[in-house]
Amino acid sequence: MDLLSLRYFQAVARHQHISRAAEELRVAQPSVSRTIIRLESELGVPLFDRQGRRIRLNEHGAAFLRRADRALAELDDARREMADAAGDGPGRVAVAAETLLQLAAVLAAFRARRPGVRVRLFQAPMGSMLRHLRSAEVDFALASQPLTGPGLCSAEVAREEVLLAVPLGHPLAGREQVAVAELAREEFVSTPAGHWQRSLLERLFAREGLTPQVVCEGDEASATPELIGAGLGIGLMPAVARPALGERVPVAWLRLDAADCHRTLTLVWREGSYLSPAALDFRRLVLEQLMPPAS
Asked: Which residue of 2, 163, 197, 201 has the fewest CB atoms within a 10 Å radius of its CB?
């Protein structure tokens, strides 16, 4: 077993696809296939279940991936630490987030403080953010919903109220507040499963023993208020969007009579991971600029 085999396995496990892993690694597909077969032979167990050309990580593969991610992350940390010690360039900071909007002001301040530092941003759903963290592809994740697990540290940096937006003229438009149970027959505009808006919607409905009727879903969360205003349905929106939209989008805003109807932004990093001086500065800026003042 060598490092190259682990890198190949990690890529195949991430994509669940030999060809896509080979494209990422920029090597021939047969080379990846042979490496995986050789690794499985060496370990004595199959790491993937195969059905024709399709492969899926099995329980042995998932267990091995957790340890391979940890081992490769430690090596990547060591490499970055030695590069910083040798003064090899200004360094880099990598961040994964569901939405990048909240990072704009932080990045501007960081660029001014640390000119020349390479910044890599990944817009990713929750599952991908966790994989990015565990494989040390990123230093931090800015999560809009709970991201927990062994070996993770986190700090809450912001909490935003989430409101219900409905088209003008909708029967609820004149209300100030509505209960979730009253929305059982309503049609919703939302984001795909896994995104914070959809997760919050499903969580609120599940408490009432209900399932929301989502009639329109899309990755472009910024289009949600426009679609609501056009009458396609109703939907959840962060309260911070209300002043930005103003009267440009014809929607009415209501509060939901439900506990925890808010979005919590949390900065997450791996426990014990190496954070470069640049990464430490970035974390400090996030906590200074996004974290609400203590009451």
From this structure: 2
Q: Could you report how far apart the first and last alpha carbons of the chain are, in Å?
A: 54
Topology adopted by domain 3-69: Arc Repressor Mutant, subunit A (1.10.10)
Cross-strand partners of 121? 95
CATH homologous superfamily for the domain 89-157+264-290: Periplasmic binding protein-like II (3.40.190.10)
CATH topology for 160-259 is: D-Maltodextrin-Binding Protein; domain 2 (3.40.190)
Task: Work out the burial of residue 258: count CB atoms within 10 Å of its CB; fewer than 13 is exposed, 13-18 middle, 19 or more buried.
Answer: buried
Contact 272, 205 (CB under 8 A): no
Mean pLDDT (the chain, rounded): 87
Domain ranges of the chain: 3-69, 89-157+264-290, 160-259
Q: What is the pTM of this model?
A: 0.69
pLDDT band for 272, please (50, 70, 90 cuts): confident
Residue that the structure tokens 């640049």 belong to: 278
**Measured between alpha carbons, how far is 222 from 195 in angstroms, rounded to an integer?**
13
Confidence of residue 291 (pLDDT cuts 50, 70, 90): low
Query: What are the beta bridge partners of residue 96?
Result: 122, 141
Q: Give 88's pLDDT tier (boundaries 50, 70, 90).
A: low
User: Is residue 247 classed as helix, strand or coil in its secondary structure?
Assistant: coil
Beta strands in the chain (DSSP E): 48-51, 54-57, 92-97, 118-123, 140-143, 152-167, 177-178, 187-190, 213-217, 235-238, 251-256, 262-270
Task: State CA 47 to chain mean position distance.
Answer: 26
